[in-house]
Structure formats: C-alpha cells, structure tokens
Amino acid sequence: VYKCKVGCDAVSCVDCSTSFYGDDYRAHTSCMTEAERYEKTVYRGPKKGDVNGKSPKKMSKQERWLGCVADAAQTAPAELRPHFERMAVLDNVPFKPKQFRNFAMNSLPRSGTQQKTVDDMWNFLKEKFDKEMEKVNNQKESAAKNEANAKKGVADENAKQQKEEENKPEPKEEISDPKVEESEAADSSVDAKKVKKTMKSILRKAKNQTMKCKKLRKDILKTLALKKALEKKVEGIMTNHIESNPKKIAFSGDGKKVTLLKKD
C-alpha cells in the first residue's frame, strides 16, 4: 500500500516509508518483515538460521504468481502492459484460469476486444508462471541431490576413518629388562612388596582377573601415588614377579596382558 506525497511526484511505502519516483514502486513487492513492523524499537534482528534478515520461508504459489504479474508490467507486449500495470498494484490477482478471466473482465475497460485481451493476458502470464515453477522445481531437485551427496560423502568419510582405526596396529609396548633387581627398585623409593601386593589386588578386581600390562602399570602408579619417572622400575618389578611365579600369575601369549591364575 502506498501513499501519495505532496504534488504526487512520488509515492512512499506505508510500511518502510521508502519514496519511489515514477514507476519505481512496481518493483517494490516486499520490504520489512512483520516482526520489524510491529515490534519496532524492541526488534532484535533475525534469529539464527534466518537469511538476510528474513526467515528462510518458502514463497507460496500466490506470491510467485504476483511476482509474475509485476514482471509482466515491464515485459508484456505494449498493448497488454497498461492492464498489467493496473493489476500489479493489487495483491489478490487469482492464478486459476476461470477466476483470473472473471477478475480481468471486471477490471478492463468495456470493449469489443475485451475477451481476446483477457485471453492474451492469461496466456502470457501462464507461460511466464510455468517457466518460474519449472525453475523452482529444478532448484529443489538440485538442492535435494546436493544434500544427498553431502550426506553420502560424510557417511563414506566416517566409514573410511572407522576402517583405518580398526586396521591401525596397536603400538608395541616397550618391555624393560626382566632381571631388574628388586633391591635397586627399593633404593629408588619403590617398595617392591607394595608393588606386588597392589598388582594382585588390582587384578582380583579386574574382569576375569586379566588386564593389559600398560593399564595395570598405570593403576599401580596411581594407587601408590608414584611419579611417572618410576614407571620402568615398577615395570621391572612386575615382570620379575610374574616370571618368578608362573603358576600364580602369567603373561598372555602376545605378552600384552597379565592374568592372575589363583590367589596366594
């Protein structure tokens, strides 16, 4: 809706108050959102996901039809252009053939060529509208295809990463000299008896009384509050004790796990 300024050299939009000279107003089919119009000073801008200050809302069929009417006011043949110019300022132009013809017949000047003019207007608009809808459908198909390809790409990448993780060899643990003397460990503030006792206690609580060597070693350090620098000495005590008591405690075949066979 527009209002005429003084002298009618220009009109201004009653929603956004923008001035338009000549026929410039015909291209102004939308401006501020309803939120901007009614919230005014308390308006806080578009929400996350909005595009250019407006929600990414799909245009209705009627809105696209009115867009074609506005465009026809500029591109239609000369004999039809004045009629489309009058229609372009209205927002209730029907897009169904029967209703459109009745609407146009009532808005055109009475003349002997009125029916032919209405038919020509309908044919021109219908062709333009069909092209617009074909363009919209192509965009939808393209967007759906791109989305499907993107999802497939993500799924393929995830599957590839998962496969690489599964095939990634487990790093070999460095095993220290199994003949490290317990007396040497004791001199370095590591109590061998406490290490052995703690190792058995932790294994008893483990599933099937079995743990990975590395995990067991870390748990012993944590339980005894020992520094990481003493890890190799703890490892030496563990290895010496396990190899000295094969009937009570033993390594797995690959040497990466320890199993408590029976209680002392």
Structure characterization notes:
The protein is mainly alpha-helical. It is built from 9 helices and 6 strands, in the order βββαααααααβααββ. It has helices at residues 34-39, 61-75, 81-88, 97-107, 114-167, 182-187, 192-205, 213-224, 231-244, and strands spanning 2-4, 10-13, 19-21, 210-212, 249-251, 257-260. The strands form 2 sheets. It has a 3-stranded antiparallel β-sheet with strand order 1-2-3, with no helix packed on it. The protein has a 3-stranded antiparallel β-sheet with strand order 4-6-5. Strand 2 and strand 3 form a beta hairpin. The longest helix is centred in the middle third of the chain and has 54 residues, at 114-167.
Q: How do the helices and strands follow one another from N- to C-terminus?
A: EEEHHHHHHHEHHEE
Low-confidence stretches: 179-187
* Helical proportion, percent range: 40-55%
Q: Structural class, from helix and strand content?
A: mainly alpha
- With strands numbered from the N-terminus, the spatial order across the biggest sheet is 1-2-3
Query: What's the count of strands?
Result: 6
Count, helices: 9
CA(first)-CA(last) distance: 95 Å
- What general outline do the C-alpha atoms trace? rod-shaped
Calculate Rg over CA atoms.
Answer: 41 Å
The major pleated sheet works out as: 3 strands, antiparallel
Overall average residue pLDDT: 78
Beta percentage is: 5-15%
